[in-house]
Amino acid sequence: MDRALVWDRGTLKLLDQSVLPHQTRVVACATADEVADAIRTMKVRGAPAIGAAAAYGLVLAAQTAATADPPMLRAHLDTAAQMLLGTRPTAVNLRWAVERMLAVAGRVAWRSGGDLVEALLAEAQRICEQDVRTNRAIGANGAALIRPGERILTYCNTGSLATVDYGTALGIIRAAHEQGKRIQVFVSETRPLLQGARLTAWEVLRYGIPATLIADNAAAWLMRQGLIDRVVVGADRVAANGDTANKIGTYGLAVLARAHEIPFLVAAPLSTVDFRAPDGSAIPIEERPPEEVTHVAGVPVAPEGIAAANPAFDITPHHLITAIVTEAGVATPPYTRSLLDLSATRAGR
Q1: Is residue 245 part of an annotated ligand binding site?
Q2: How far apart are CA 32 and CA 327, in angstroms?
């Protein structure tokens, strides 16, 4: 599989990201429950990819209950939607995709379960096609900000594995590389699940982008040595004022970038902007199992019995962000105005 997720004759196939890069395993989901489990266990991850997977999860929910009468089918769909929404509370693309699918179920005149499945499948496919176009646009808009020869630090994984295809923050890096800008990338490992070391490192090697893997705690020293020209990260949710939720550790990188006067870019589709959240305090932060901290790849690295905290995300305040790159353009402070303007521009297209 070249993509994180593929719909194949009534089944959602996922590239299992929990075992990359050492194994290539495809997980086939035939029910919404299986999709929810794959999202929860991070076999599929990244805000856009989670949203797309959830959309197909609702197709599967309708498919498994297609012979039920319309009220029961709709109730089954609503139950599946709530289950999917409960898997990863921080990534707003999940809610965005689920609400979009439910809107189709409420809007389309369907006489049978088969009609509903067909309508939902068409919408899920539109969500995927839109994601690819969106990522390409983010890449182009962000690459325009990159100077030739820049050394860019990125965090977590924001490439084709985290999206339907191409990527957001890594999409900017890919576009700059494809334009021949001779960039170099520093890939931060991203504890505790090592998405940078396992996934981003795997992707940049495939794309032929010159890259160096670093421990998370090496970033400050590299900045102090003048080896980082720009930081580019993704986002799981952006509040209306520009406060941004991203993988835990992003906030610290933003503080370091500000201290060293290094531009800090966030790459995110407008579907990731939550205008219902006025600021970062309204964004829920997922707490994941402590075993992800006390173990690495299932191997214990801490003494048995030690307590561990494992927030999956943190909030980067908007004043630390140089710009937010979207498919409709680049938002700059004040974000309360520029994000709304870009959203209006996109809606008017």
Answers
A1: no
A2: 30
Tell me the domain boundaries of the chain: 5-135, 140-347
| Look-up of token digits 């409420």 | 106
Q: Was 93 annotated as part of a binding site?
A: no
Annotated ligand binding at 349? The verdict is no
Give, rounded to a whole angstrom, the gap between the first and last alpha carbons of the chain.
33
Q: Phi, psi at residue 192, to the nearest 5°?
A: -95, -10
The dihedrals phi and psi of 289, each to the nearest 5 degrees, come to: -60, 140
- To the question of whether residue 237 is assigned a binding role by annotation, the answer is no
In this predicted structure, what is the pLDDT of residue 345?
Answer: 83
How would DSSP label each residue in 253-274?
Answer: HHHHHHHTT--EEEE--GGGEE
pLDDT 10s digits, 281-327: 999 999 999 999 999 989 999 999 999 999 999 999 999 999 999 99
Burial 226-257 (b: 16+ CB within 10 A, else e): ebbbbbbbbbbbbbbbbbbbbbbbbbbbbebb
- Say which CATH class 140-347 falls into: alpha beta
Is residue 146 within a helix (H) or strand (E), and if so which, with residue range? none
| Cβ atoms of residues 149 and 226 within 8 Å | no
Residue 325, phi then psi, degrees to nearest 5:
-95, 120
Query: How high is the mean pLDDT of the chain?
Result: 96
* Annotated binding-site residue? 226: no
Q: How crowded is residue 282: how many other Cβ atoms within 10 Å of its Cβ?
A: 14
Alpha-carbon distance of 182 to 15, in angstroms, equals 30
What percent of the chain is modeled with pLDDT above 70? Answer: 99
Helix runs in 246-323, H state only = 250-259, 291-294
Catalytic annotation present for 78: no
In contact, 271 and 51? CB cutoff 8 Å: yes
β-pairing verdict for 184-188 and 151-154: parallel
Query: Token pair 């609702």 is at which residue?
Result: 58
Q: Kindly state which CATH superfamily the domain 5-135 is placed in.
A: translation initiation factor eif-2b, domain 1 (1.20.120.420)
User: Is 47 among the annotated ligand-binding positions?
Assistant: yes
Structure tokens at 213: 């893997």
Quick one: which H or E segment has residue 314? strand 313-316
Catalytic residue among 16, 131, 165, 236: 236
DSSP 47: H
